[in-house]
Amino acid sequence: MRKVITAKDAEELLRKGESAPADAILTPSARDLLMGHVKLGNLAAARPVPAVAPPAARGAKKEFIVPDYEFKWTPGRDPKSPAELERFFHSPPIHELKERMCGIGRRIWEKDYVDGNGGNITVRVGDNLVLCTPTLISKGFMVPEEMCLIDLDGNQLAGTRKRTSEAMTHLGIMKRQPRAKACVHAHPPHATAFAVAGVRPPTCMIPEAEVFLGQIGYAKYQTPGSPANADEVGAIGVEHQAVIMENHGVIVWGKDVEDAYWKMENVDSYCKTVWIASQLGTGLHTFGPDKLRDLIKLRQSLGMPDNRADLKECELCDNSEFRPGVVCSVPAPDAGGGGAAAGEPADPQVEALVQQLTDQILKQLAGK
Predict the structure, then answer these.
(1) What 3-state class would DSSP assign to 7?
(2) pLDDT band with cut points at 50, 70 and 90 for residue 303
(3) pLDDT at position 59
(4) Is 314's pLDDT higher than 50?
(5) How would you class 225 by CB atoms within 10 Å of its CB: exposed for 0-12, middle for 13-18, buried for 19 or more?
(6) 3-state helix, strand, coil in the chain (%, to 5)
(7) From 17's CA, which of 67, 131, 264, 266 has a CA 20 to 30 Å away?
(8) If you average pLDDT over residues 215-232, what whole number do you get?
(9) Would the pLDDT of 341 be above 50?
(10) 17: left (phi over 0), alpha (psi -120 to 50) or beta
């Protein structure tokens, strides 16, 4: 089996001054690290090191780069025939996407967001074409040759491995939301705990979560991979980039697969923080709806949709349904020193039972 080089492996190669094996498979992050630093032998995926641009002329405005991994296609130009589909499926741009999907799979596996053959990844590559991961495979050890090509109805068009059955849930979102160019589904432990507990994460607590996630959606349980689940999650996913699926896990979408993966990290980190904060016994402090309105505008300025933009201020920051599982406080004793809270009448039947047990214990002790 060809060796998969992760970013961590790449850092170790750089430290030792060694080169990657010629037939190694590099994750996108590993390739970025190694490019220009390590000899890659005959590795076909190698790209030339960009030349250093000359200093900008005095007074000229310098351009700064923001990486963009979104796959763009020409509408109405999807390949149709089997031969065209095969050429497209094995083309260099699609191969690069397959490598990136494998890299994302490795990252969700290393973060303990998936176990066994859990999780799946999709990337939209045409009007009616989607790359997806295969069924029954560990996301930590995928290779590009194992990816599949399907249409928006789930029919497999190319690839040797059978596509994941849960692709239908991804397609349920993509059909309804054109901005959803990539989806990642996983079972991150903290967010999945919210899914199992039937709890929707509260809002107005951490600014970064409001900007990069927006309001987290909550989909009622349906059988994974079923048309009902695709309909349920698809409808929620139109206005929510992150959806907690009841008793199941999390699905997120973005403009590209890297963007979607970031949102998976954001969801689990946010749920973890809220869970820890709810155990501290001081209550959960929120900022006001006026502050949230500013964050929604910032989110929209970054090109991300937010279904709360048209809500009234009184409807924002509504966490009335959120109930932390533990409250670390001790009820005050009553004036008489009894166990009941102040002002609460004692239950006569309970008092009689306690007295009966006390008498029996004292009788047994007296007989010794």
Answers:
(1) helix
(2) confident
(3) 67
(4) yes
(5) middle
(6) 40, 10, 50
(7) 67
(8) 96
(9) no
(10) left
Rounded to 5°, angle at Cα 318 from 313 and 320: 150
Would you state the pLDDT for residue 56?
58
Q: Which domains does the chain have, with CATH numbers?
A: 1-48 (no CATH), 82-315 (3.40.225.10)
- The token pair at 289 is 């709806």
Q: Which one of 12, 96, 166, 258 is the catalytic residue? A: 166
Cα distance between residue 251 and residue 238, in whole Å: 12
- The pLDDT, as a whole number, for residue 344 is 54
Q: Tokens 């390739």 sit at which residue?
A: 31
| Arithmetic mean of pLDDT, 116-137 | 98
148 closest CA partner among 164, 168, 132: 132
Other beta carbons within 10 angstroms of residue 146's beta carbon come to 17
- 365: Cα separation from own chain's centroid: 61
Is residue 141 a contact partner of residue 114, using CB atoms and an 8 Å limit? no
Confidence check: pLDDT of 120 > 70 = yes
State both tokens at 361.
Answer: 């214990």
How do beta strands 182-186 and 249-254 pair? Answer: antiparallel
